[in-house]
Specification:
Blueprint lengths: L2 H39 L4 H21 L4 H24 L5 H23 L8 H5 L10 E3 L2 E2 H19 L1 H9 L1 H6 L4 H42 L3 H26 L3 H19 L5 H22 L1
Antiparallel strand pairs: 1-2
């Protein structure tokens, strides 16, 4: 195994070319990771999955109505579909006996199927294809016209979205924190937990839509869950979870780009693999919730009766 070829040569040969790809992957994973902490805390992680699949019919309908694949119609169509999916999930959950996971499953599978049919019918003679739904077009970003420091416009847009998400979390930190852990307490403090929930879902829709067209469904779905799941294994303090999510985003993005260059594979799934490896490592070595820590505590608990018996003798 040539370690120089695997770890050093990709950066010597491709660093300048893949800079926009890394920037896009980082901003996507940061935005998804930050808002994903609230999804994990509220136990609604699959809502992000539902929205990322449900934007597909919005994209297809926007293309059918306008005949254009430009960013603005696609973004508007996807955003409308994402918000509609969120409202449909809430209606099914609140107006029927269905649990939320069942409402999510019905919504995203139905809307995704409609989107696939629409694209299959109306996108047959264009490059509006289903591969972009999974992997996006992130690896083609270096070929786009740069608008700022050599970075394409879609990456700048994603950076703005990530910064806005961070600022909104800072401004409404108390409301989001209290309504996530105890909606009843939030209501007693004058905070409307349902309104906070809908606003959170609206922000989630914007993040998913902004990222979906360029990076595809795989990276969006994974990064709504992996950074938060990794962070909660290390801390139960929300502010620290946010910082750890950003760190996870940086490692998974940098490692994903490196893996993509070294193995000549798409960047989106490579970033997901690196993020999953980070989660597995933390799951094993976490001081309080890791497998090693749990095994040691279990081993001490099993030995405690023997020690007490020996002491009595």
């Amino acid at each position: 195994m040539n370690l120089h070829r695997i770890f050093v040569e990709p950066w010597q040969s491709h660093a300048s070319h893949y800079w926009p790809v890394f920037a896009m992957a980082f901003f996507v994973t940061v935005a998804c990771g930050l808002i994903g902490n609230y999804l994990v805390l509220r136990r609604i992680s699959l809502v992000g999955d539902a929205i990322s699949h449900s934007v597909l019919p919005g994209i297809a309908i926007a293309f059918i109505l306008t005949g254009s694949r430009s960013g603005t119609p696609m973004f508007i169509g996807a955003l409308v579909a994402g918000v509609a999916a969120t409202l449909l999930i809430e209606v099914l959950h609140s107006r029927s006996r269905l649990k939320q996971d069942a409402a999510i499953g019905i919504t995203f599978s139905t809307l995704f199927a409609i989107g696939v049919i629409l694209i299959s019918i109306h996108g047959a003679h264009t490059d509006l294809d289903l591969d972009c739904v999974l992997f996006g077009k992130m690896d083609f970003l270096p070929g786009r016209e740069p608008v700022f420091l050599g970075v394409p416009g879609v990456t700048v847009t994603m950076a703005v979205v990530a910064i806005c998400v961070g600022l909104l979390i800072i401004i409404f930190y108390k409301e989001l924190l209290v309504s996530s852990f105890d909606p009843s307490l939030a209501a007693s403090m004058g905070i409307n937990p349902r309104l906070v929930h809908y606003l959170l879902m609206a922000i989630l829709s914007v993040v998913v839509v902004a990222a979906f067209i360029s990076v595809g469904a795989i990276l969006v779905i994974a990064m709504l869950i992996l950074p938060a799941a990794t962070a909660c294994m290390l801390s139960d303090r929300l502010w620290l979870m946010m910082i750890l999510s950003v760190l996870h985003a940086f490692i998974s993005s940098l490692g994903g780009v490196h893996l993509a260059v070294a193995l000549q594979v798409p960047t989106a799934p490579a970033s997901v693999v690196v993020g999953a490896v980070c989660f597995v490592v933390v799951w094993i070595v976490s001081p309080r919730q890791g497998l090693i820590s749990l095994w040691l505590r279990s081993h001490r608990a099993d030995r405690a009766p023997e020690v007490r018996s020996a002491g009595n003798v």
